[in-house]
Write a structure and sequence with these properties.
It is a single chain. With 385 residues, the protein is of the alpha+beta class. Helices cover 48% and strands 14% of the residues. A hairpin with a 2-residue loop joins strand 2 and strand 3. The strands form two sheets. A four-stranded mixed sheet has the order 1-4-5-8. The structure holds flavin-adenine dinucleotide (FAD). Flavin-adenine dinucleotide (FAD) binds next to strand 1 and helix 13. One of its GO terms (cellular component) is plasma membrane. Its cofactor is FAD. Keywords: FAD, Flavoprotein, Oxidoreductase.
Length: 385
């Protein structure tokens, strides 16, 4: 069963589908099929194709290179990219920093940073979380003290995705330790990853990944012109940014793609009514999620803005995707007990990538704000009303 879209939207869907089929670099496609790690150059190769087509930054305002698509077109675009086997958009510069600079940056900051973000020439990471300050982000302790025309930054960030290959980091720092409320003493700074005193240390993850890091800042000097928005007003930028981060995390396109993969891997097992019922249940839940997302888009939301709805989609989407991975692991059986090897043939490589994929999927309900915290936000927004 499928949801119905207008003929114009279906034509748009087809255009995106054709683009992915012809433009996704072969090397990236193969790595995706085999479940292999993508390096910065793989992601950039694909994002550059999107940039050349004018599709790299659909979430940005038109003035700065957005596409001006309707929310439904954006939904279809996200879906077709993943269904076509391309990597999802993980550039923090494109998803998070770009919208913040457009909304809060100076003209000079926009001109300096936005074009390089758009063509993926400069890679950014997000320095928000700290040890002890994840869900309770406003308790962060990294300090920035003004010294002439610089801030001097000291502290530690953690779980910084892709810091190992980033050129720059957008960062929350405490500029006023005596503010009335912790949120009021925070500023938003742009930091060069090559600045003296900045060190990156990788964190190994269960799935064998190496994309998470700790970032240590020891008397790092940051020019004052790298402050975004007003000093001590960084929380406003952060809240705006988190809405953009969460918007895409529901991953409806990803769930469809993984359900297709589940069906393909299951093959004859779909003849087993007990197993088939589990697959159908996930399909129905996904259909309900898609219908909900479209209903919210149709209700006049320009985009999935920070709101209880975004949290709701994030919780349901991530739980659903985790259930799909659980069932895929079951399908792979003993093969999934072996770690992927460089010389596996493509079919075996795909099966053996399922255990790392399953473990990797555990993070869906943590990043972008944990699902427990999203439930709190939903409760506050809906029950307190
Ligand atoms: C793969 C991955 C990538 C990430 N990338 C980045 C990044 O690039 N940049 C960055 O800054 N951060 C990043 N993060 C960090 C992420 O934002 C935090 O992990 C997340 O906000 C949770 O914070 P925490 O890990 O400190 O857990 P904690 O806040 O310590 O939470 C621990 C547990 O307690 C629960 N809990 C906490 N508070 C409440 C509450 N009030 N009510 C109910 N339950 C609660 C949580 O749900 C969780 O289960 C990433 C995380 C992951 C897993």
């Amino acid at each position: 069963m499928k949801l119905k879209y207008s003929p114009q939207d279906e034509a748009f869907r087809q255009e995106v589908r054709d683009f992915v089929a012809t433009e996704l670099p072969a090397g990236v496609r193969r790595k995706m099929q085999r479940g292999e790690r993508l390096e910065r150059e793989d992601l950039v190769a694909w994002y550059r194709r999107l940039y050349e087509k004018g599709w790299a930054t659909p979430g940005w305002s038109r003035e700065w290179g957005g596409t001006g698509w309707t929310p439904v077109q954006r939904h279809l675009f996200d879906e077709e990219i993943l269904l076509g086997g391309a990597p999802r958009m993980v550039s923090s510069g494109i998803i998070m920093l770009g919208p913040v600079l457009i909304a809060f940056g100076t003209e000079a900051q926009k001109r300096r940073y936005l074009p390089d973000i758009q063509r993926s020439a400069v890679w950014w990471c997000q320095g928000f979380s700290e040890p002890g300050s994840g869900s309770d982000l406003a308790s962060l302790r990294t300090t920035a003290v003004r010294d002439g025309d610089h801030y001097v930054v000291n502290g530690q960030k953690i779980w910084t995705s892709y810091a190992q290959f980033s050129d720059m980091m957008f960062c929350l720092v405490r500029t006023d330790p005596n503010a009335r409320k912790p949120q009021e003493g925070i500023s938003f700074l742009l930091i060069d990853m090559k600045a003296p005193g900045l060190t990156v240390r990788p964190i190994a993850t269960l799935d064998g990944g190496r994309d998470l890091n700790e970032v240590f800042l020891d008397n790092v000097r940051v020019p004052v012109e790298n402050l975004v928005g007003e000093e001590n007003q960084g929380w406003t930028c952060a809240k705006y940014l988190l809405g953009h981060e969460r918007g895409g995390i529901a991953g409806i396109g990803a769930a469809k793609q993984q359900l297709g993969r589940l069906r393909r891997l299951a093959g004859p097992r779909l003849g087993d009514p007990v197993f088939a019922a589990q697959v159908h249940r996930l399909e129905i839940e996904l259909l309900a999620l898609e219908a909900t997302a479209l209903r919210l888009l149709g209700a006049g939301q320009r985009s999935l803005a920070p709101a209880a709805q975004t949290s709701m989609l994030k919780v349901r989407g991530t739980e659903l995707r985790q259930s799909i991975y659980r069932l895929m692991l079951e399908v792979a059986g003993p093969e999934a007990a072996l770690w992927p090897g460089a010389h596996d043939d493509d079919a075996l490589a795909e099966l053996r990538a399922l255990a790392p994929d399953y473990l990797d999927a555990r993070k869906f309900s943590i990043y972008g704000g944990t699902n427990e915290v999203q439930r709190n936000l939903i409760a506050k927004a809906l029950l307190a009303a």
